[in-house]
Amino acid sequence: MRALCATDLSAASEATIENETCLRCLGRIGVRTVHLVTVVSGNVHPGMPGVDFEARRRRGLDRYREVIEAAGFGVETHVVRGTPYRRLNDIAETVHADLALVGSRGQSPLLNRVVGSTARNLARTTVVPLLVNRVERAADDPDVLREHLFRHVLFATDFSEHADRAFGAFSYLRHATEEATLVHVRSPKDDGPDGDVGPAERLAERASTLAGWGIETRTEVRRGDPAEEILAVEAEVTPSTVLVGSKGRSRIRRLLLGSVSEDIVARAAGNVFLVPPPRAT
């Protein structure tokens, strides 16, 4: 597997890249090559007085390369120009990445309503599964909040094709997963008949699959606002990562805020693994 790792050479990025436990977790799920990518703003030009951003960023990437190669991965580095989330998606498609990794301190609820961080913009538009690795917010030298990326996975499902696709990620995450919590939230519009199989039984089917892989699993059906209830479960069980599927990107969706997956990315206390629809061929 190939992983794209986005970095702006900040302390938050460094916490994600240089954490040995996080790197071992990536190795367990099958990552063998890491593409380190940093994006220089298109407004910065080499000829500007006192500016040598590209050279500085290459030096920073070379330092990260040494750390990642020492952990046993192959490494390629990329310094590109433009809008971060657009260029990161471009590189992901070019190198055929299997997943992307970005560190995030999170933002205040107000700021999330006004301006999107790179992590949130990627959540709206990502072309590959995206791991948002949460780091300490108010620290000069931050550390990651959940070192074991996939030890305990909280999987949220509405039983849609998007959720089923996210569940499929367990085919490789299971090599680093010991526990899983499966949750379905019934909203008021779901008050009609469940059909032949109710949500508890459908969760039990998925739990049986994980149990066959040796993963200790619990299930929970809740009622209320999906994002609020998923975040409430996260607060109760403290998983390493919340696993959710997204509906993908559209021109309209990129202008709107408030989908369940975007709310989870913006507000979750720990890591979020977001699985989008397959890339168009």
TrEMBL record:
InterPro entries: Rossmann-like_a/b/a_fold, Universal_stress_UspA, UspA
Superkingdom field: Archaea
The UspA domain, residue ranges: 3-132, 150-276
PANTHER family in alphabetical order: STRESS RESPONSE PROTEIN NHAX (PTHR46268), UNIVERSAL STRESS PROTEIN UP12 (PTHR46268:SF6)
Family from the record: Belongs to the universal stress protein A family.
Protein name in UniProt: Universal stress protein
Organism this protein belongs to: Halorubrum tropicale
Lineage: Archaea, Methanobacteriati, Methanobacteriota, Stenosarchaea group, Halobacteria
